[in-house]
Amino acid sequence: MPDTSSTLSVSPLPPLTGQAEQLIRLGVHERAGMSADALRAFAAGADGADGGALLAVHPDRVPVSALAPLLRHEGRPGFVVVDMPDVDRFAPCAVELPDAPLYLVTGLDRGDRMANWSPEEALPALTAAERTPLLLGEGVHWLLQQPEVLQRNRCFMTIGSRLRKANGALDARTPAIWISNGTGRDGRERRDAPKVGWCWWGNRHTWLGFASATGRRV
User: Fold this and answer.
1) Which of 43, 58, 105, 114 shows its CA 20 to 30 Å from the CA of 216?
2) Residue 11 placed within a domain
3) pLDDT tens-digit profile of 162-195?
């Protein structure tokens, strides 16, 4: 199998009950139209059985555009690039999600060793390694719990989310999360802010790995 792993070394994810409290503190449950008690109950029921899992809200319940501003890096809030006004139309592609408002993502990996690969090259390698690419929303959820995962020159793509055009073809843009340099249309005030953007399906970038998971379950 190809080596798709990461050189990332950070503290383990908080327990699911702690992750639930973080989402409640940020108001994610309100954006998703659910009660804090429902979020706490789900986390309490799964906690202990899934060490290292990420608690995620189904993308149908809360859009990325509502989550991105909650991200933080160097004290700067996250944002979506201006030329991605359709960010919420990027949906799961070749990734099966549980039919539930809350679910767990297991075996997270930032995929540093795939930096300077194109999405076109990365997807079959992840599949061969029995991994699936993260959705954009899952990548945001990961950073809400562990902001330190986003590091300059060590950021990641989330190619599990794709936009299907009216003719059925996939849009060539593929979403990613990295750190703004405060140039161009980002604006100097956004330097060091977490940035939700996109790259072309066939292009390579030295600072972008490919985040992936081993599974998803309720």
Assistant:
1) 114
2) no
3) 999 999 999 999 999 999 999 999 999 999 999 9
